[in-house]
Write a structure and sequence with these properties.
Elements (H helix, E strand, L loop, with lengths): L2 E5 L5 H13 L7 E2 L4 E2 L3 E5 L8 H16 L16 E3 L2 E3 L17 H10 L10 H16 L8 H9 L6 E3 L8 E4 L2 E4 L5 E3 L1 H8 L7 H11 L10 H16 L4 H10 L2
Helix pairs in contact: 2-5, 2-7, 3-4, 4-9, 6-8, 8-9
């Protein structure tokens, strides 16, 4: 078997990836296929080298259905780390908070607010003054305020909501967390997930991430996903909102070239 070996000496990077791949793989029947980890140490992991082929419409439809089931496998709460992993994670070169316990939006609330979590943990940490002007930070702050108010909250896809109702340990979707199209390998056997930033999250964020840099047969993926696990009304109007996190990370890592896109999203939802 031809293999690849990935090395990273930074603390926790390999452990997070290994834990995330294992967690996603638990849902791979009937959920999406995940590249297996053949062996690993503290600073390295070994995987089989996947054979890449051109994606077909049929493979895209199968992936959409499978991804819906991966999400429905669930996580305890928004931002939940993979089981047996402690500490914060990474999304590419950016730090990613993974709170052990859910945080409540308001003292009177018994449930997490997606908007409050998204604003506090997935947008605000990346709006530092090295990348954004004061006016730009103020606009992003207005978006965070609106998110924290609950005005932009919305439900998960049907299968995730069903899992939340049936199981008291499910409060969020089980997400890949960094699902841009380069982290989907199209093989002779179908789509395979690689390089996750696995976490409890909102399923729509994975779907939105696929579109950030374009994804083959994207509409086929969406249609089969929506057929398997119907999305909450208005989901198309929320795609950019769910892309805000990955765009903010690109601003933090790559600089101002991504700032206009982040500001355009902030203006749309404030």
């Amino acid at each position: 078997m031809d293999t690849i070996r990935k090395a990273d000496s930074r603390r926790g990077r390999i452990a997070y990836e290994v834990a995330g791949l294992a967690w996603l793989a638990e849902a791979s029947e009937p959920g999406a296929a995940v590249v297996p980890v053949l062996d690993h140490g503290a600073t390295w992991l070994e995987e089989p080298r996947l054979v890449s082929v051109a994606p077909t419409p049929r493979a895209a439809e199968e992936f959409g259905r499978a991804l819906a089931h991966t999400h429905a496998a669930g996580a305890t709460h928004l931002g939940a780390p993979p089981p047996d992993f402690e500490g914060d994670g990474w999304m590419g070169e950016a730090h990613l908070s993974l709170p052990d316990l859910p945080s409540l939006a308001r003292a009177s609330s018994s449930e997490e607010s997606w908007g409050a979590f998204y604003a506090r943990e997935r947008i605000a940490p990346y709006s530092d003054d090295r990348t954004f002007t004061s006016a730009e930070r103020a606009l992003i702050g207005k978006l965070c305020d609106r998110l924290e108010s609950g005005a932009l909250d919305h439900g998960q896809p049907r299968l995730v909501e069903d899992a939340k109702e049936r199981r008291n340990n499910v409060g969020a979707a089980r997400t890949h967390g960094d699902l841009w199209s380069g982290n989907v390998m199209w093989t002779p056997d179908g789509a395979v997930l690689i390089d996750p930033a696995a976490q409890g999250g909102h399923a729509e964020e994975d779907l939105a991430a696929l579109a950030v840099f374009g994804c083959p047969h994207y509409e086929r993926i969406l249609a089969s996903y929506n057929e398997t696990s119907p999305l909450e009304d208005g989901w198309r109007e929320r795609v950019a909102l769910h892309q805000m996190h990955i765009i903010m990370i690109h601003c933090a890592v790559f600089g101002r070239s991504y700032v206009p896109e982040a500001i355009a999203i902030a203006r749309t939802y404030t």
